Amino acid sequence: MRKTLLILTALALISAGLASPARAESVRLTYSSFFPPTHVQSKLAEQWCSEVELRTNKAVIVDFYPGGTLSPAKQCYDGVVEGISDIGMSALAYSRGRFPVMAAVDLPMGYENGVQATAVANAVYGKFSPAEFDDVEPMYFHAHGPGLLFTTEKPVRTLADLAGLKIRSTGNSAKLIEALGGTPVAQPMPAAYQSLQKGVVDGSVHPMESNKGWKLGEVVRHCTMSVPVGYTTTFFVVMNKSRWNEISPENRAIIEQINKEWSVKHGRAWDESDAEGKEFLASKGGEFIELEPAEAERWVKAAQPVLNGYADGEGQAVNGRAVVDFIKEEMAKRP
Q1: How far apart are CA 19 and CA 29, in angstroms?
Q2: Which of 30, 74, 103, 257 has the least C-beta neighbours within 10 A?
Q3: Is residue 167 within 8 Å of residue 223, measured between CB atoms?
């Protein structure tokens, strides 16, 4: 009897030893972001990696690469598709025309904060499930608070003041600048500081956050509080489809829950960093210009063709009017 028990025990230990490598094997992923490592959005992304590792009991491990070290901002999405990185976070606006449904979120809708814009972005994706993301597995989206106008030398108090100024902008914000009478200059955020410092551009449209997060408050002097035409920039977090399918269904469900939590964290972080960015610009002697009510109405009217152009189709196979109307409904729910 004792001999039989010893044999059974030995077999159990052998079986456990053979099974343990399979249990110990992890899916190891790489995550690319253009945000610098000190930026709050990078910190949140890195925390997401840690949370995934924790909740999956290290079945999924994610190595984070900030600062565009794996792929630059403009190439991040294709980098995920092609497997240069397994996960990527960047701005949809850096691939203008590629995301016709989600591009509507970036329109100058008059966003009031990042929580609102982030909720709208995820709601639009959930509602329309656009085919433009069929080549990746979207994790979640987030979006900053109102994109405003900042200039280096000339303060902009009226539309007439903006005429002829070269303004760094991307995607729909470039269309907004053109509609308002300025000259858009397409540049990703990492190029903004040097362009503003060297006078390549006269200003930039960006959220208040970027004055501290990207140090733009050191090179801009005037902020036009153009909230009535406040746009946003939608950021994606997407994963390579093949790598996603390597993760067990149980752990995919865990990650999907983390995604829901983290999109909210990103929206809140945008708002907190907006407040810090405003304080940073003020500390550098920045001027904040409120639009007179009548002038604000002129800005809204001037920007309307940008919304109409999208809603009427702009040659895209998208029901633009339905998307814009849905955004307005969602904004009303989340002031």
Answers
A1: 23
A2: 257
A3: no
Average pLDDT over residues 297-322: 88
Q: SS3 for 39-80, per residue?
A: CHHHHHHHHHHHHHHHHCCCCEEEEEECCCCCCCHHHHHHHH
pLDDT tens digits for 231-255?
999 999 999 999 999 999 999 999 9
23 exposure class (CB count in 10 Å sphere: 0-12, 13-18, 19+): exposed
pLDDT in the model for residue 333? 87
Q: What is the pTM of this model?
A: 0.86
CB atoms within 10 A of CB 194: 11
Calculate the CA 74 to chain-centre distance: 13
Q: Looking at the predicted structure, is the pLDDT value of residue 7 above 60?
A: no
* Burial class (CB within 10 angstroms; exposed 0-12, middle 13-18, buried 19+) of 92: buried
- Do the beta carbons of residue 228 and residue 110 sit within 8 Å? yes
Cα 19 from Cα 16, distance rounded (Å): 5
C-beta of residue 222 within 8 angstroms of C-beta of residue 202: no
Position 213 pLDDT exceeds 80: yes
Angle CA 250–251–253, to nearest 5: 70
Give dist(CA 154, CA 202) in Å, integer.
Answer: 8
Rounded to whole angstroms, the Cα distance separating 133 from 33 reads: 18
Whether 287 contacts 155, CB under 8 Å = yes
Q: How far is CA 289 from each of CA 130, 156, 158, rounded to the nearest angstrom?
A: 38, 8, 10
Which residue bears the tokens 């005037």?
Answer: 222
